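INTERNAL TRANSFER SHEET
From: sequence group
To: structure group
Subject: Guanine nucleotide-binding protein subunit gamma

Please process the attached sequence and return the structure record in the designated field. Keep the field labels unchanged so the import script can parse them.
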Amino acid sequence: MMSTPYELRAGGDGKSKKQSMAELKLRRLNELNLRLKEDLDRRRIPVSEAANDLINFTEKEPKDFMIPSRWGTVDKRDDPYAPQQSGGCCVVM
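Return from structure group:
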């Protein structure tokens, strides 16, 4: 007698294995569904509004001397990135 490809073997636990796989798949789908719901509930704003918020934020912050196009040129003595003028550290004899 020849066995069919889907026939359970003696001592096999095929039904419970299928059930546990189905439960695992259901749990993963429920987790994915929850994450998608959280994404859907997240506050969304238009890009133009986000850009304006960013511009307004940067206008209130201290000047960034690395962006002269935004803040204009900076006096050398106020620029922390300018090379320091020293009176000399060495004496020639």
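Handover comment: The chain has a mean pLDDT of 79. The two ends are 111 Å apart (CA to CA).
Transfer complete.
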